[in-house]
């Protein structure tokens, strides 16, 4: 078995888009600790910005300082629980922030093993051998209807309910993330993004951009530019993580 260590590199970009007055997305990462997080906040009176920032800060801090003897999926669940508690408690103390919440998609990397975690409709993808694959499952009303066979993808894209998410951090006392375990291989490229990217660009368009052999910073900039050019109706955030040789 090949036990050689692998290394990761990362870059990210965020933009408020063309229609929103503020940016309620947030991201954070530590290549050193193998932790990468993207959030998309929701709520009026700047509550979305507060929720997403709280989630990123809390999850990042917890995962960076985690006990390495603890199983990574359990550490991820504990980090999400801590972020959820921080947001919910803050909203309870301040009526202006009542109902605020955020999605979260994260990646936890330990050598050749990675774990995606998600709550809401921010997504995690893997590009391998020039093929893009969505790893996470959206916690949204329309996507759950698609998975049940009650709605087609085309109908989901047109549905007036496409913005309704069924799971979010901070809106209830407890939340459970989905966690997906993957084996990483040199050359893999992981994408964490908010729906401001995936609402404007198809998976095929994202794949075509990521397939070009450019620095990660340039790829992030290209994705944001393409999403804005396609409409930019929401905040746009993408975080790319590459498994280096």
| CATH homologous superfamily grouping | PPM-type phosphatase domain
Based on secondary structure, the structural category is: alpha+beta
Number of helices: 7
Beta-strand percent range: 25-35%
Total number of β-strand segments?
Answer: 10
Question: What is the average per-residue confidence, as pLDDT, rounded to a whole number?
Answer: 92
Which overall shape is indicated by the principal axes computed on the Cα atoms?
Answer: globular
Tell me what the CATH architecture is. Answer: 4-Layer Sandwich
Number of domains: 1
Helix content: 25-40%
Low-confidence stretches: none
CATH class: Alpha Beta
What does the radius of gyration come to? 17 Å
H/E topology pattern? EEEHHEEEEHHEEHHHE
How is the CATH topology named?
A: Phosphatase 2c, domain 1
Describe this structure in words.
Helix content is 32%, strand content 29%. With 245 residues, it is of the alpha+beta class. The chain has a single domain, classed as Phosphatase 2c, domain 1 (4-Layer Sandwich). The protein has a five-stranded antiparallel β-sheet. The chain has a five-stranded antiparallel β-sheet with strand order 2-3-4-5-8, with helices on one face. It is globular and about 50 Å long. 45% of the residues are buried. The mean pLDDT is 92.
SSE layout:
Blueprint: E1 7-15, E2 25-30, E3 35-42, H1 47-64, H2 72-93, E4 101-110, E5 113-119, E6 123-128, E7 131-134, H3 141-147, H4 153-158, E8 178-183, E9 189-193, H5 195-198, H6 203-210, H7 216-229, E10 236-244
Antiparallel strand pairs: 1-10, 2-3, 3-4, 4-5, 5-8, 6-7, 6-9, 9-10
